[in-house]
Amino acid sequence: MRCKDCGKDISPQQFKASKEALGVALCERHTRLIKKVILDNDTPIDAVHLFYALKDAGVHPMLEWWDGKKSVDIAISRVKLNIEIDRNYNMITHEQAINDLEDAMHSFKNGFTTVRIPHLAVKYYLDETVENILGIISGLKANIKAI
Description:
- By secondary structure, the protein is α+β, with helices and mostly antiparallel strands.
- Helices cover 54% and strands 16% of the residues.
């Protein structure tokens, strides 16, 4: 068993502990680091799962990236893509909808595209979510080359 982040061999006990706590096989160091990121930023666990799934797919994502106004769950800077995981997708208020729109506008003005993904898509359809994000990345790369 190897750490999904650094590739270091991990013990069965560490594998079990990290899988139970985070749902991802990580060494002790990376388990500690990811737990700190979650605590410091209120990062959804689904963002952690998507982050490592994107890494496995060959993407170079950043977890909890500062966009100049707020922290973004996942950023893919090469194509200027911000990904936010919506935890309460079915409980959105009109105030939150406007705030989300303003955040998207702020990102767009800085050249970034923001995609909001319901947490259920990550939880139950991780592979399909990754495939769709790869398609978005491909489209953004084509647009960057066209400009």
